[in-house]
Amino acid sequence: GEMFETAQLAQDSITSRQIDEAAVRLAAGARDPKVGQAIRRRQDASEALAALYGARDAATARAGGTGVPGSVPPGDPGVLDKRIVAAEAELADADAALQEAAPNYGQLVQRVVPTSAVLAALAPGEAFAAVILAGEEGWTFLLRNGVVHAGRVPGGLPNVTGLIRRVRAGIEPAETGLPRFDMDAASALYAAVLGPVASALEGTTALIVAPTGPLLALPFGLLLTEPPAGAALTDAPWLIRRMSVSHVPAAVNFVALRKIAGGSRATRPWFGFGDFRPVSMAQAERSFPAPACADSARLLAGLPPLPFARRELDAARRLTGAAASDQLLGAALTVPAIRHADLRSFRILHFATHALLPTDLKCLDQAAIVTSPPAGARDAAGALLTDGEVIGLDLDADMVILSACNTGGPGGRTAGESLSGLARGFFFAGARGLMVTHWSIDDQASAFLVADTLRRFASGVPLAAAVRATQLGMIGDPGLAHPFYWAAFAVVGAGG
Known about the structure:
The chain is α/β, with parallel strands linked by helices.
């Protein structure tokens, strides 16, 4: 237990701290709205000041502005300095107001939680696994039924990284079509990471996992619990066959989110966003001027339509009993419209559109959800809901569905944070749980997966279990059994 508590320090990150702060705010707001408002004001002031510091750093590093939508305009250094002074004063004032409203706020935000707290938060049949990798060392901690189990991960980071690269290489399509899925690598990865504690997993019906490092690039449900006996993907021993799987950045987030799970006070069931209209090439070029950003402009203006997104949203609206007016579709789906919508009234928010990471759009410095441009827009700024915009939203949602490509993170191509800026932003804004994707998804398959998951969820099945049931049905279909179709979505946060 002491070893597990110490190891939690290795999983401390911006992501885990933002989620913990948001969970504390939601819990405090449920007891006293004024305290929740004071916490949110302090958090917003801190984010605004950090953005201004970043803009000043960027202005120092290069002359002029980037023109990137969603960034804070560098402008004149003197103007920036004045804005920073004002933001520092606002943060100090917000700190004082928070101290008066909630003197113990600092004690509520934690980096480490006691082992006993994690064990107490687990329901019957649940297990919590934390995987720590550092150099050639690695440990998996499994907490279940009042007991902590620990096992060494053989080969540590180098071994796990190599296996993940092999698994990822067997998922994403090439010009010739879907590659052969590397079942041996998926089996070896399970043996390395969960194999050392496999005996303690027997009888588990739901696994909550806190991965680290390159493991953030994969949903654990596609691991194979034993070496494959044959080549048929429909019969493979996927981990998802044994138990539902959800993910959290760290143990502290699991405990905090479990306390507020299902606690939304929103009165309306669902709100949808989709059927975007692409920006014109002229609008894209004004936001991403040539020559340095010509490729980004072409990519943004050339994003293809998503014909099944509208069907996915229509099905979701009917399944949840939402009103026809509870959605932003087509030309109405713009960043200003999202910003001004009363989203705090909805328990489920559902985005079915494109998402772009900075690794996709080289001249974009934040992750973004693609929307339609506002009427008469000169550039593409109003068609990119960046993670900075998401942080500014005010939510009280049990779940946010991000049915778009790579909303979970950068696919293992970069190290560091456990979620994309978009996903972190939604947690900060007030989401308790997310459905995110780990690679570029198939439009039709994802529409079915999300709609069928919501059908089960609406009948009372927990989110992670609803995703599992739908995935098992897809695995049984030879045309959908490849993990590319069924495994992209992962539940993060409150999935129990």
